[in-house]
Amino acid sequence: MGIVNVTPDSFSGDGLLQPTGAAPTQQAIAAAERLAHEGADLLDIGGESTRPGAAPVSEQQEIDRIGPVLESALRLGLPISVDTRRPAVMRAVIAQGADLINDVSGFRDPLAIDAVCASRCGLCIMHMQGEPATMQADPVYQDVVSEVESFLLAQRQQLLNRGVMRERILIDPGFGFGKTLHHNLQLMRAIAQFARHQPVLVGVSRKRMIGALTGQDVASERVSGSVAAALWAAAQGASVLRVHDVGPTRQALSVWAALESRDE
């Protein structure tokens, strides 16, 4: 899953908005095309930064940012995901033809479930402790794996109760969303456990945990560490890898797959 951030303040340094907020649609479309060329299987378009400390934007701002990029991206022939936690935005992009709704709040809002349950979209349930503005202030768990697992399964059941087919659902432990480095590492080591319940999406690309492990403060310089984490996640059973750097990740996965193969 290649990431297309139509925001001015992405933590990863790849946001495609200017600080004025004017959306450079052509830049975002070019980024989507580049990721497709590098081998992305699907794209994830986001119009609101959910980095730690990020301020929310209005529903209309988010729709205005995403809409034109989504319209063009749908022509690439790849499934298109939209990263949003707002029911109004979900309705708008589903009507436009989005294939997947990636909700960082895990469909905690009953109106979000209302917005998606009758559609044919895939749905990604992510765990987040708190809200983006404050989630990294002091995240505390008694047992992070158990608590995240319980939340994801409870939210899955909410969707199933509304008639959503189980095959439509992905789960995401939410690395970096209200978690310390220790919490993130525990969750990474539990990917196989999560995957027994539902296909798992893992998004650790360029995140602070990679910086903490590598000593690299600049997000755009965390590519090698991110690729290593992606390979680990794939080896543990992750079904979807959400990444900024599709080309390097695809190369690493191709080599790993060839080495794993028993065919000469």
Structure overview:
With 264 residues, this protein is an alpha/beta fold. It has a single domain (2-260), classed as Dihydropteroate synthase-like (TIM Barrel, Alpha-Beta Barrel), CATH 3.20.20. It has 10 helices and 8 strands. A 6-stranded parallel sheet has the order 1-2-3-4-5-6. Strands 7-8 form a two-stranded parallel ribbon. The radius of gyration is 17 Å and the shape is globular. Residues 10-23 have low confidence and may be disordered.
Furnish the topology, listing elements before pairings.
Blueprint: E1 2-5, H1 25-38, E2 43-46, H2 59-73, E3 80-83, H3 87-96, E4 100-103, H4 110-116, E5 122-126, H5 144-161, E6 169-172, H6 181-188, H7 191-195, E7 201-202, H8 208-214, H9 223-236, E8 240-241, H10 246-260
Parallel strand pairs: 1-2, 2-3, 3-4, 4-5, 5-6, 7-8
CATH topology: TIM Barrel
Q: Mean of the pLDDT scores?
A: 90
Corresponding CATH architecture: Alpha-Beta Barrel
Give the count of structural domains: 1
What is the ordering of alpha helices and beta strands?
A: EHEHEHEHEHEHHEHHEH
Largest sheet: 6 strands, parallel
What are the main properties of this structure?
264 residues; alpha/beta; 6-stranded parallel sheet; two-stranded parallel ribbon; 10 helices
Quick overview of this protein structure:
The protein has 264 residues and is α/β, with parallel strands linked by helices. Helices cover 43% and strands 11% of the residues.
